[in-house]
């Protein structure tokens, strides 16, 4: 019989230790970030590295590659433990621990899922159930012997590793739990609500399914009904194909992060999902809410933001307003200013973001004339001319003095002309019908067009940061709350696909089109190299793998915006990475930060 007192004491000590450990991590993490740089390249693969997976303890790292091999690393020792030849006939796209981390599961382009002994490399299980490429597999937190595999054949399948599975003739195995609306690119399970699965497919919608409510027969052609669906509200106004290359829950299971091809990275709230903005709907306020005066710090950020706006550096202005709004989220003036900066910058999704800010400002203070005007401008920019004209007439009655200005009357004439010409509402391009919840935050600046396995993940003990890959040889690090790009890391010669944070330490493993795995860690030593430079001086040199200067970051974001807008190949971009990795401020072109 177990010793009850001993058990209680052990649990108490564990909780106290973990509480202090989490506090220490949170305190130190921000400081570590300043010294992050490339620590080591792990070399053994002979092809692109398409997937990475840390063990729960963070002592072992798995990598899968185009060379059809799985490498098992001791990354903290920079040592290869073993290399498993999987005998897949096509590229490996997914690798997972299984069976209490005693085995490895792989999914590949040949449509097969295999299980190998971690110790001996022996093949333990083979699943040939899928009819097309297997893109991702995921574990289920409450059962170490279950793997969920997903494929471009539109199915997700429940694979029980304890069974000696033999596939039926015609690949008609009855283990499909999801039939998606499009080829599946990504799948992950909720770590706290293990019945939930998030699925990303070859369209702009991310899906959450409840495993307890799934009952499908593969082959009947009907898609499985999801529990919830998510899509950025502006997508339907953008011409072009989007797909969800990666989706994952945060450790609390309350937020969903999605990386989108031909788009950016989006954060959704799963517990309190955000209702999408409908331009034709009314959003009445509840009376003017008092807006407290800004303190010194927030006031200084606002003044700098206004200065950047006047200098037409709209991205910088948006960054400063966003930082200020984290301190004063109900500031009508800040919401109005950021909306104006969004409209001026006019990057992908900016007009919709301006509409969201304008509606929020009007709800907070229905008497704020500038917010009403910004709302009309946003509707006009989206193409809702008839709705904008209705709003303008109400604006004209309520704020006659402002409406009589030349700028306002010019807007009125353009709206009237558009409506008379029959240009009432915008054409929408979405092919995914239904009601989809909107995003909470968006993280822009990266470029995701050339591969369909690009990841984005939470980073930090309290998920303070978001990291995501890009086609410009970089991976990005954003502040989760402010949505600001904090740093860029040169993670590949071409494309960074995988960015996997260590489960407890401020380390990151990344990979891409190169045949190496790169480890990133904080350099805490102020040692000197052969040229007498400290680590900080090296980070500012042209040999650094880190871009931290805000103005250089703006250059990259602008270049990626232009590439995304005109679908240019990266080779024809207006600047190269070598041109930006110089000392901060050197040869900087301010015109790259302006969009007009």
Write the layout of secondary structure elements.
Blueprint: H1 4-34, E1 36-43, E2 49-54, E3 61-65, E4 69-74, E5 79-85, E6 92-98, E7 103-108, E8 113-117, E9 123-127, E10 134-140, E11 143-151, E12 155-160, E13 176-179, E14 184-189, E15 196-201, E16 206-210, E17 228-230, E18 243-249, E19 255-261, E20 265-269, H2 296-310, H3 314-327, H4 332-345, H5 350-364, H6 369-382, H7 385-398, H8 400-403, H9 406-420, E21 441-443, E22 456-459, E23 465-469, E24 474-479, E25 485-490, E26 496-501, E27 508-512, E28 516-522, H10 535-539, E29 546-547, H11 550-566, H12 577-580
Antiparallel strand pairs: 1-28, 2-3, 3-4, 4-5, 6-7, 7-8, 8-9, 10-11, 11-12, 12-13, 14-15, 15-16, 16-17, 18-19, 19-20, 20-21, 22-23, 23-24, 24-25, 25-29, 26-27, 27-28
Helix pairs in contact: 2-3, 3-4, 4-5, 4-6, 5-6, 6-7, 7-9
Describe the structure.
By secondary structure, this protein is of the alpha+beta class. It is built from twelve helices and 29 strands. The strands form seven sheets. It has a five-stranded antiparallel β-sheet. Strands 1-28-27-26 form a four-stranded antiparallel β-sheet. It has a four-stranded antiparallel β-sheet with strand order 2-3-4-5, with no helix packed on it. The longest helix has 31 residues, at 4-34. The chain is globular. The termini are far apart. Mean pLDDT is 85; it is low at 1-24, 525-530, 532-542 and 568-596.
